[in-house]
Amino acid sequence: MTGEPDGADRAEPCIFCEIVAGRIPSTEVERTPTTYAFRDINPAAPVHVLVVPTLHVGSVHDLGPGDATLLSDLMAAVQRIAEGEGVAATGYRLVANVGADAGQTVAHLHLHVLGGRPMRWPPE
């Protein structure tokens, strides 16, 4: 697997690793052995849940062929969350920013599940 344990030594601490480990509080939506989902502290929609791997992975770009199970786990978590939040039937946006130019502000792979209102393209 590409990821590192959440306690791995890094040049800078990872806020999402700290959240997964419970050292920084969050509002948990779901936890599995490979994924953790929690509410965004600055929501961009009525439903705004972040889904992260429990192991540190920098971004989607850092995934490889050996990470198929992790990707499947992340997508299954997204589907469960959309159902649980009541947005699966009406629609939701799934966003993964990769790198600074795309708006990735935390270097830990995370998926934004956004819904609960009509979404426009381009995003507001």
How large is the count of helical segments? Answer: 2
**Estimated radius of gyration:** 14 Å
Uncertain regions spanning at least 5 consecutive residues: none
The biggest sheet amounts to: 5 strands, antiparallel
* Backbone shape: globular
Order of helices and strands: HEEEHEE
Tell me the CATH architecture: 2-Layer Sandwich
Straight-line N-to-C gap? 36 Å
Salient structural properties:
124 residues; alpha+beta; HIT family, subunit A; 5 strands
Describe the structure.
The chain has two helices and five strands; from the N terminus they run αβββαββ. The chain has a five-stranded antiparallel β-sheet with strand order 1-2-3-5-4, with helices on one face. A hairpin with a 3-residue loop joins β1 (28-31) and β2. With 124 residues, it is α+β, with helices and mostly antiparallel strands. The protein has one domain (15-115): 2-Layer Sandwich (HIT family, subunit A), CATH 3.30.428.10. The longest helix is centred in the middle third of the chain and has 17 residues, at 68-84.
Protein topology:
Layout (H helix, E strand, L loop, with lengths): L14 H6 L7 E4 L3 E5 L7 E7 L14 H17 L7 E4 L15 E5 L9
Antiparallel strand pairs: 1-2, 2-3, 3-5, 4-5
